[in-house]
Design brief:
By secondary structure, this protein is mostly helical. The protein contains eight helices and no strands.
Length: 187
């Protein structure tokens, strides 16, 4: 017999996730950092319910803390963001340790850490893009474990966007990195 309540939660979880995905894609249309952070906070609200409906409690908890972190970061000056990051990291660490039952449950925390760090190093685009790639990889693995289709798509789009940003805007850094590697490879 099919458990219809379980199917409904999975279905509605995916629907809410696709709304969050559309919001995340839409935020790339804006150039103003504050506008993007507001839109990201709204997306976090949808990701909370997406994760809850799919049974991803730690993902929902990390998005809840990220929601408040993003709102606070919008209200404070740039030099205070590091303190907001550290406090939110402590809260997130406490919550994830209380509610994790497997190593997979820890992945949202590592993704949360990476995206929080991106808020701190946003004035260094290469560093920000690299930590965003790492964060997306952690969230991608978690999303695969939940079969969270919209989150999987969002993570792939985030990785692709960061890689394209690195290749477009950080050419010198990429060139120097490849040059260093080639020197180490061929004596």
């Amino acid at each position: 017999m099919i458990n219809f309540l379980s199917f409904d939660m999975f279905f509605w979880g995916q629907v809410v996730g696709f709304i969050a995905l559309l919001i995340c894609v839409g935020k790339y249309q804006f150039k103003n950092t504050k506008t993007v952070m507001w839109i990201n906070a709204v997306a976090c609200g949808f990701w909370i319910f997406h994760n809850l409906l799919l049974g991803g409690l730690t993902g929902a908890l990390m998005n809840s803390v990220a929601f408040f972190r993003n709102i606070i970061c919008l209200k404070v000056k740039a030099h205070v963001r590091k303190s907001v990051f550290l406090v939110s990291l402590g809260v997130a660490g406490f919550l994830v340790l209380q509610h994790s039952s497997s190593l997979i449950d820890l992945l949202p925390f590592f993704g949360f850490f990476c995206f929080g760090l991106a808020n701190v190093v946003y004035d260094r685009p290469l560093a920000m893009r690299l930590v965003c790639i790492a964060g997306d990889i952690f969230w991608l693995i978690y999303a695969l474990s939940l079969f969270a289709i919209p989150l999987i798509i969002t993570c792939f789009l985030g990785i692709i966007s960061s890689v394209i940003g690195i290749l477009r805007y950080e050419r010198d850094a990429v060139y120097n990195f490849l040059k260093i590697i080639s020197l180490r490879t061929y004596p």
